[in-house]
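Hi V.,

Quick status before I head out on leave. The structure for the redesign project is tokenized and pasted below; the design run finished overnight.
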């Protein structure tokens, strides 16, 4: 049905929307939505589900003293996207519900268009800062999600991926109050209430897996299992219980495997059974905001005994000497800077850390007043004066147990055309201050340490 303007919106959840209002009231998050204090925002696509949710909530929120707004995410993927935004604007105006429209750019990044659009949508929704975001997912959506995750080989967490209430990861909560209602019930309520909505043409495209499940698999399933929605909802609920227990087990075990620098100790991890390895490794990666897949877990466990550097999204996974560390991805330092010889901490633009300068009587380097000290990025074939000759910096790094990726981000201090120091690691022996003289000492504190 094409979107059109209505003359008057429903002022209360009357008879056609009573079942919807009852479902919302049943799952009302009392502890999160307090009268006069809380803000709930409806994710409004303009489709029938979100239109019904907004109309039912518009009266309930007023009655319960909760501030209600709506957000429409404009992906720009459909030629009708502007029309959908206009429809949502008109609907919210009639309901007197404030609306914000978020225009997003969907970057596939090598993944599926569906996943990229979903990630962009949730980021945009989170930007509103609402205490609770209301999503219009229903019983059919839940059943399709369970089937989709099962066909992908998902475990307990994947099967339980659509709970009524969960934290969003952005400081708020995601709330799905319509999960007990079927799509047909919601559409029937909308027709009886005389509501209008828009249809997203992509929902009929069988190239998308969820649509293939909805239009091709579910009809066959319903013929043999008429109660499939309820049974799949039970599967999701049991999976949620199991996932919660596994999460508790991982949370109590990980601290014993994690060092002060946040690195995961792989050697003791590999002494456990494969199911334990996968559970703990996945939990660690999720805490580091890494997107986990069975293939990634297999790759990391296969390479755990060796050094590795893998990029996953905006994270770099670094394995060295039996440990795994996760760091944000970013460019390597490439700028040369002049270092001011002043005691204290010095931040270096473009470098992931802070230099510490101090004067000391023993072990410091002698520098005349006005000496020019440069901070330089790595170079091939670096050597540092040590004893009667020079020593390759590569060996100094190895002796210090410094992983390759840390070496690449560790500053080199140069003076008078020669390497002066690797801060905190070694200094040029031919530049050491004489007994009785005060010299300069250099330390390096990496970001996040």
């Amino acid at each position: 049905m094409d979107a059109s303007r209505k003359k008057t919106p429903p002022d209360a959840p009357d008879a056609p929307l009573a079942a919807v209002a009852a479902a919302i009231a049943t799952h009302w998050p009392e502890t999160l939505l307090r009268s006069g204090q809380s803000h709930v925002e409806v994710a409004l696509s303009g489709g029938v589900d979100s239109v019904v949710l907004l109309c039912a909530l518009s009266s309930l929120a007023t009655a319960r003293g909760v501030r209600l707004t709506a957000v429409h995410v404009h992906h720009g993927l459909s030629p009708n996207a502007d029309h959908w935004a206009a429809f949502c604007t008109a609907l919210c105006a009639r309901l007197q519900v404030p609306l914000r429209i978020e225009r997003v750019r969907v970057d596939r990044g090598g993944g599926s268009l569906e996943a990229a659009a979903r990630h962009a949508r949730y980021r945009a929704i989170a930007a509103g800062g609402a205490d609770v975001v209301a999503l219009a997912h229903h019983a059919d959506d839940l059943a399709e999600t369970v089937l989709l995750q099962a066909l992908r080989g998902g475990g307990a967490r994947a099967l339980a991926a659509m709970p009524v209430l969960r934290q969003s990861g952005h400081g708020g909560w995601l709330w799905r109050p319509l999960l007990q209602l079927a799509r047909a019930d919601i559409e029937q309520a909308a027709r009886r209430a005389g509501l209008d909505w828009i249809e997203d043409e992509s929902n009929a495209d069988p190239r998308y897996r969820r649509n293939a499940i909805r239009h091709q698999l579910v009809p066959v399933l319903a013929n043999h299992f008429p109660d499939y929605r309820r049974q799949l909802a039970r599967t999701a609920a049991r999976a949620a219980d199991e996932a919660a227990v596994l999460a508790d087990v991982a949370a109590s075990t990980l601290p014993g495997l994690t060092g002060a620098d946040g690195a995961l100790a792989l050697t003791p991890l590999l002494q456990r059974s494969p199911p334990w390895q996968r559970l703990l490794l996945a939990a660690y990666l999720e805490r580091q905001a890494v997107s986990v897949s069975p293939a990634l877990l297999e790759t990391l466990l296969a390479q755990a005994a060796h050094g590795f550097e893998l990029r996953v999204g905006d994270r770099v996974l670094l394995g060295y000497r039996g440990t795994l560390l996760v760091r944000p991805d970013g460019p390597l330092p490439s700028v040369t800077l002049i270092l001011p010889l002043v005691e204290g901490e010095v931040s270096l633009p473009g470098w992931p850390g802070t230099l510490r300068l101090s004067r000391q009587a023993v072990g410091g380097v002698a520098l005349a007043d006005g000496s020019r000290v440069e901070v330089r990025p790595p170079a091939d074939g670096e050597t540092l004066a040590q004893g009667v000759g020079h020593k390759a910096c590569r060996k100094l790094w190895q002796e210090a147990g410094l992983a390759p990726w840390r070496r690449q981000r560790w500053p080199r201090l140069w003076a008078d055309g020669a390497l002066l120091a690797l801060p905190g690691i070694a200094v040029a022996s031919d530049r050491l201050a004489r007994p009785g003289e005060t010299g300069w000492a250099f330390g390096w504190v990496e970001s996040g340490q």
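Above is the designed sequence. The longest strand covers residues 67-74.

G. will cover questions while I'm gone.

Best,
W.
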